[in-house]
Amino acid sequence: MKTAVITVNVRKTEHMKITVKLFARASQLARASEVEVEVDGGASVADFRKALEAQHPKLKPIAGSLFVAIDSEYSSDDQVILETAQIACFPPVSGG
Amino acid sequence: MQLPSKNRLVELTDQPIDADTLTQFVTTPLSGAVILFLGTVRELTQGKRTTALDYDAYPEMALAKMNELVSETAEKWPVQKIALVHRTGHLEPAEASVAIALSCPHRGDTFDAGRFLIDELKVRVPIWKKENWSDGTTEWVHPSAE
User: Fold this and answer.
1) Considering the domain A15-90, what is its CATH architecture?
2) How far apart are CA B141 and CA B44, in angstroms?
3) What is the CATH number of domain B18-140?
4) What is the ipTM of this complex?
5) Looking at residue B144, what is its pLDDT?
6) Residue A62 and residue B58: Cβ atoms within 8 Å?
7) Does A33 contact chain B (CB < 8 Å)?
């Protein structure tokens, strides 16, 4: 009996187009409540930050202070972004 | 200790906050102490006059973080019931933007738990306020941002 070898061809997505929600001053500077950001498949939050700043230079004045939330959780810079993730960017919070 | 969903009231609302309802919600026969904290819109900030504040929120994440805070509070203190409500939209001076009501068997824990909730809410929950100054200018408030 032959052994079946199943090759799963995981094709790395070349580019991902991510829709990013913006709030408060981020939304004000970009003049939009959502923007699109293109990143390579397997991009980390750090990669995403660079892409965001390059593709949306209006956000430059606050880029260093932006939080990146993934699926309603604060992220770390080494976290990998999945194509299905819900991403939001916002400056320090001021509720209360 | 886990705080079951029937013992917590966590909400974002664009309507005025009814503090009496929240106080009644947290009061139980087993409570020895109930506190109510209201954060209200202040008219003067470093000599500048506020005519109104506009609050914006990232609703899904704000509610998730508010529930997380309620759970953490119930793990640290013997809280019986907690109500945590934040208002969004356009608020004028003296209106309440946030309300915390909670109950414990003894008073000391209610103050400590309430202090923890409001302090953490202000750094962790994605809600923002925009100042409407009396000179007609507006400004988003972002602590420690450039």
Assistant:
1) Roll (3.10)
2) 14
3) 3.90.1170.40
4) 0.91
5) 77
6) no
7) no
